[in-house]
Amino acid sequence: MYGVFGGYTRWAVVFLIIFVLFFLLVPGYGAATTTATC
């Protein structure tokens, strides 16, 4: 896991996964909230 950034590579991967999950969950959550409200 140690690449160009050394020890920070692990944190970069963690934040990348969180970032992707965030963008995957937010549209689904917004659509569910919109349909539930309507």
Strands, helices and their partners?
Layout: H1 8-37
Radius of gyration equals 16 Å
Shape: rod-shaped
Helix content, binned percent: over 70%
Q: What would you call the structural class?
A: mainly alpha
Percent strand: under 5%
Distance between the termini: 46 Å
In sequence order, what are the helices and strands, one letter per element?
H
How many distinct helices? 1
How many beta strands in the DSSP annotation? Answer: 0
Biggest sheet details: none
Task: Explain this structure.
The chain crosses the membrane at residues 12-32. It comes from Alicyclobacillus cycloheptanicus. Keywords: Membrane, Transmembrane, Transmembrane helix. This is Sporulation protein YjcZ. There is one protein chain. The protein is an all-alpha fold and 38 residues long. Helices cover 79% and strands 0% of the residues. It has one helix at 8-37. The protein is rod-shaped. The mean pLDDT is 78.
